[in-house]
């Protein structure tokens, strides 16, 4: 992991004019995180198709996507529409398609976007084929493969894989290949488990590709990915692309999994101290779940960070200090390491930063990112794409 | 509780043109809920100061607030600014004030809004007094009283109550009175516990008021409230106003507490079935925590509803069906009552409605409400006020 010096941090004075709570991005850390995964995947000779679901801000796209033809993954058609408007042309919508959304898919394809959809049922294949036939268009489609029982997808040995691929390949839609997501890797907290999850993701993908090859069905795309496995591949022979999203910001879940350090986390919520409860050892801040999200993704992790790890206004992690509980607009901060809390470190009106359990969830609570670059002394605002 | 017939529900066909997931309000239920609390509080002869934090939509304000002078509570200055722009003039900002926010408070007061702030520390009193002195204005302030150790506030017997009230009363700010919130009542699941929490809230408020009276400090405002206690007061002698928010929509937390029935819940997320996993008994829908929120407010309640209770597209509750888990854009629905799931009830492409654990949290994930009135056949869109 890269080493950050205090100098990448925006000084507290740089954001004093912004009312709290707000969402802060440490831009040098964000860019370091992007470079780190890109450098890790490049030697494998496969494409990186970053997942835009974490960031969802067009101002950030240029950092994540080298050019207009760069592959990108989205979790909503709204993201795809915003990226298309910004000129991006190679987009995979990685949530199972429904018939009612096909007119929006069709509109993007008509604009010249390669918008690839995902599916795993005959009903979805039928809907896509029917839409293509009715509108004389070609929608590329991937079949979702289940590698770990996490949510959707079909097993590589399931005969439905061949049936669906044939229905697509023979129909007006276009069969593009297979897509897997090792969602269960989020529960791996050791290097060995991560490598096994990564190996399994790749091996399952190849079993699907080989099953198709045995029936002479070409499978140009073999797409795998999740942030935990993206940092754990030992080989990617036969895979064509890797997807990952949360690595751009990182978070406390990923720190638990071991693919980043607390110092790599580029996202935080800045909050103001609005009260003390000396009897209980509580500092009250003006960031509750509305600013932090209600995500308790570290609840069953080796280190449970409550509703977030506390850092000081300059970004330095304050060991043992967490958000113990969160109401809508109140967070209660306290120590979890048995030491007494020093209230003088948290005067009323002073600011703290809260590192998120889950960057995707915390970012989703905000309309804007306040992006600071302490190295260059810059401040910019990125705007979240909202909705579906 | 009122009885709803199926006829208040918008038929599924009424929303077929909207892409899922989206947030739906059943307007007749919403209005019934508003009437129910108003009717319950009116006989006590105290004001109802609805909390706008749940709804946060100006289009809804006219239903909640009879006229421009109606009292209203907010959780953010952004709500106060939007309400002021819409003409409302009597607003209490019920989150501890910080010095950095006072220019926005001052701007509202200059516009003629009675914007009352909340505080519980000498630093906050000093900041408000200093601001008033520097800007020759008068900011009304309430002192937060702690009635149940939930988060902030000071105890009524704490000598700081008198000190702070004196500093306000003698300074350029204006001491208005005391405010309490029985936050711990959210953990009461029996009528007796709720009544005790309500009694305690009122009794604690009166102890604070009496402590002030004993020092000849007038206390014109005695503000209490939370949705659980608002439905449980036995007497309100000496109280001047009641605050509550979530009662307007109700949710599964409130159903657990016993202040509403599932049929009273006016808010739901409409989702589309995008997959089946017959081996696991799972139906996958396109609403994950991004649409539902990650709030697990019923986790320790008598009935744990997972990430939400499933209803059919017409709004009828499907007993035993819950959202078992939620990823960003995927929800996994299944049975929790041991019965086998009938997949024919959930064809791919069909719709379900998910009742929320916590209406405030679920609504916060959306920019808009799709508001249907099945009785009058109308559909309108309300826009959420976002941010702080």
UniProtKB/TrEMBL annotation, chains A, B:
Recorded family membership: Belongs to the DSD1 family.
GO terms of biological process kind: D-serine catabolic process
Phylogenetic placement of the source organism: Bacteria, Pseudomonadati, Pseudomonadota, Gammaproteobacteria, Aeromonadales
Ranges of residues in domain D-serine dehydratase-like: 266-373
GO MF entries: D-serine ammonia-lyase activity
Designated name of the protein: Metal activated pyridoxal enzyme
InterPro entries: Ala_racemase_N, D-amino_acid_metab_enzyme, D-ser_dehydrat-like_dom, D-ser_dehydrat-like_sf, PLP-binding_barrel
Ranges in a coiled coil: none
Organism (species): Zobellella endophytica
Protein keywords: Lyase
Domain of life assignment: Bacteria
